[in-house]
């Protein structure tokens, strides 16, 4: 059964979910130290890559890593195409996201990874009866080119003359062909634009296929849906009770004269009700929806997963609980209620996020009953309260101490003890060290532990038995983070334990200068992350260099390490959403010399009001307060490239790091000596 794209359609759609992770870089097996990993939070490693511009200075190159694992997708595509013929679908689209527009998905939701063999977190697959294309961005060009087999064409998004996946699908539809997809996996705005593009190119249009065809191909091999507990987050960490959050949301609904808001993003549901789960690795969320009106709040989730404390809290706050799948059953009643509460022939509309699925909008009755808006819950969540901000400061001190201990240990192992360590052994050791600290829950993403050429792979994924052995004479990049009850961390440091090349030192220092420039920026209220992105790139640009990723992303409070709607970069959403006091986001410029090394320096920072001599336009002015407490690599800094102001910033930062973390190492002379050495003034 299929449904053409029509605005008044009232049909509801449901479908299961999934994901797959399959690749790595081969390197000699190491002799790892004995390390006990921490099992308290689910983990998953994700690999991403980029093709970086060449660095013009003479440098020591390293051997290219061997090919990543390529998955043979011939039989999978054949099975999918057979189902497409049965259902008269000429072109089938497989997005990366789940039904909640999640960036990272549960294992059961990795349809695109399964059908294509490409395991990066971003990308869309488009399959015809004789072709298959995978579109992804610059972070993943290398990875995708190595993971995709001969059945696939790689569409490198953002490069000149390369079509988007929408353009490619529309082009393939010429001659009256039909494009189909699972409507729970795409937003209605994207679906409508795609439908217009298809028809403009002579296609029959876009059709919603309610039964996901990749699910049918995956069949019994598809991972089961997770059923992890849903727990209550204490208000001593959340800083605000759910009743207060609901009151504020209802004020927004009243302003918009809406019937209610249907919450579809998982982190927004978790934040709104002060609940946390672990259905998606590293992300403390759970499968759920919510509906909030002026006189009711309903959580749609598996009630058997709720702990007694969570159930009691929901009851106290007058929040009803219904089965997860009941939302789509209730949508007709919601539409009827909106119509009954309207004025004359105009119903009061329900609000949904612009990221909500096409299926959800259709189920609620389409444009007559639904308005798509930037989520008011997302906006509120992005502005942390004082409890959350203080938690961010405190957890970063503990996390900084853990990273400092790890780097001191790693240098000692490699240089003094001449140990042979692979990238996974190092990552596991870091997790072990982190787990000793107060309020630690687990990792916030899979640790990117990368040596030499692997560091040029932006979101590299080391795998035991096939990862690199850490070379003490090469750059080592570690991008890692943790989930604590009082906050979420994400820090990148690039180190060199031997003698770096002049090219490596120059690149590192240019990246550091960009980090300092953004950290010290002052800007009027209303400024967007798009407007200040160039501050971090300016020094690289002067040398003809750049990096193919954003400069900063929002970070949740014991929630997703990537949190919208704010960020720093060139994405469209960063043009539309200004930064605000209370936002927490990363500052992470980098440079990647493909096949040789990679450099990234990442701090988390709080947006706050700053005092200025003047106040043009009577506007408040904003700046950043960095909370990351980890030293920078002295060995990689070319001091001659720093201004006096930059050296002062660096010295002040080092003094702050030493003061905040030194107390953790009273009984650890090795780490204390390393910390003191790395924070000496320039």
Commentary on this structure:
The protein is 33% helix and 17% strand. It is built from 20 helices and 29 strands. The strands form eight sheets. Strands 1-7-6-2-3-4-5 form a seven-stranded mixed sheet, with helices on both faces. It has a six-stranded mixed sheet with strand order 13-12-11-9-14-15, sandwiched between helices. Strand 14, helix 12 (358-363) and strand 15 form a beta-alpha-beta unit. Helix 4 (165-172) packs across helix 5, helix 14 (386-416) crosses helix 15 (423-434) and helix 16 runs antiparallel to helix 17. Mean pLDDT is 89; it is low at 1-67.
Features:
17% strand, 7-stranded mixed β-sheet, 682 residues, 20 helices, metal-binding, 33% helix, metalloaminopeptidase activity
Short description:
By secondary structure, the protein is α+β, with helices and mostly antiparallel strands.
């Amino acid at each position: 059964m299929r449904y053409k794209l029509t605005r008044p359609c009232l049909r509801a759609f449901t479908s299961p979910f999934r994901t797959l992770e399959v690749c790595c870089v081969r390197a000699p097996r190491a002799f790892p130290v004995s390390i006990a990993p921490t099992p308290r939070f689910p983990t998953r490693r994700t690999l991403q890559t980029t093709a970086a511009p060449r660095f013009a200075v003479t440098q020591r190159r390293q051997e290219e890593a061997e090919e990543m694992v390529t998955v043979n997708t011939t039989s999978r595509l054949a099975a999918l195409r057979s189902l497409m013929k049965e259902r008269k679908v000429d072109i089938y689209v497989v997005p990366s996201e789940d039904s909640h527009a999640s960036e990272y998905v549960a294992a059961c939701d990795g349809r695109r990874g399964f059908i294509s063999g490409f395991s990066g977190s971003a990308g869309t697959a488009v399959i015809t009866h004789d072709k298959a294309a995978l579109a992804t961005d610059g972070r993943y060009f290398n990875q995708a080119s190595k993971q995709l087999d001969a059945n696939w064409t790689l569409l490198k998004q953002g490069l000149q003359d390369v079509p988007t996946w929408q353009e490619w699908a529309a082009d393939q539809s010429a001659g009256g062909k039909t494009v189909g997809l699972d409507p729970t996996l795409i937003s209605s705005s994207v679906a409508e634009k795609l439908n217009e593009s298809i028809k403009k190119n002579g296609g029959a249009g876009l059709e919603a296929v309610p039964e996901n065809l990749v699910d049918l191909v995956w069949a019994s091999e598809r991972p089961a849906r997770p059923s992890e507990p849903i727990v209550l987050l204490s208000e001593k960490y959340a800083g605000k009770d759910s009743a207060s959050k609901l009151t504020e949301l209802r004020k927004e609904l009243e302003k918009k004269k809406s019937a209610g808001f249907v919450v579809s993003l998982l982190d927004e549901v978790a934040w709104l009700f002060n609940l946390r789960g672990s259905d998606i690795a590293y992300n403390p969320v759970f499968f759920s929806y919510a509906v909030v009106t002026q006189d009711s709040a309903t959580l749609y989730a598996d009630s058997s997963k709720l702990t007694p404390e969570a159930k009691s809290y929901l009851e106290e706050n007058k929040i009803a609980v219904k089965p997860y799948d009941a939302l789509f059953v209730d949508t007709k009643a919601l539409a009827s209620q909106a119509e009954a509460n309207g004025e004359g022939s105009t119903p009061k509309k329900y609000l949904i996020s612009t990221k909500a699925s096409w299926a959800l909008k259709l189920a609620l009755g389409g444009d007559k009953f639904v308005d798509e808006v930037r989520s008011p819950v997302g906006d509120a969540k992005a502005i942390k309260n004082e409890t959350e901000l203080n938690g961010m400061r405190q957890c970063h001190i503990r996390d900084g101490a853990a990273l400092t201990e790890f780097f001191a240990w790693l240098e000692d192992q490699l240089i003094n003890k001449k140990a042979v360590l692979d990238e996974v052994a190092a990552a596991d050791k870091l997790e072990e060290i982190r787990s000793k600290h107060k309020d630690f829950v687990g990792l916030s993403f899979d640790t990117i532990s990368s040596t030499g050429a692997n560091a040029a792979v932006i979101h590299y994924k080391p795998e035991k038995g096939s990862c690199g052995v850490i070379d003490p004479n090469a750059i080592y990049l570690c991008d890692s983070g943790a989930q604590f009850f009082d906050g979420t961390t994400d820090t990148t440091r690039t180190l060199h334990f031997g003698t770096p090349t002049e090219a490596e030192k120059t690149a590192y220092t240019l990246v550091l200068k960009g980090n300092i420039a953004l950290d010290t920026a002052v800007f009027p209220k209303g400024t967007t992350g798009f407007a200040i992105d160039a501050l971090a790139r300016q020094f690289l640009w002067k040398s003809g260099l750049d990096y193919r990723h954003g400069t900063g992303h929002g970070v949740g409070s014991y929630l997703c390490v990537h949190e919208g709607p704010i960020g720093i970069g060139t994405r469209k959403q960063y043009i539309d959403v200004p930064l605000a006091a209370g936002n927490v986001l990363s500052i992470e410029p980098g440079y990647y010399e493909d096949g040789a090394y990679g450099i990234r320096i990442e701090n988390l920072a709080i947006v706050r009001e700053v005092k200025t001599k003047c106040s043009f336009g009577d506007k408040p002015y904003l700046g950043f307060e960095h909370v990351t407490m980890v030293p920078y690599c002295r060995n990689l800094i070319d001091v001659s490239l720093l201004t006096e102001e930059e050296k002062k910033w660096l010295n002040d930062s080092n003094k702050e790091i030493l003061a905040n973390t030194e107390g953790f190492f009273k009984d650890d002379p090795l780490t204390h000596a390393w910390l003191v050495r790395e924070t000496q003034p320039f």
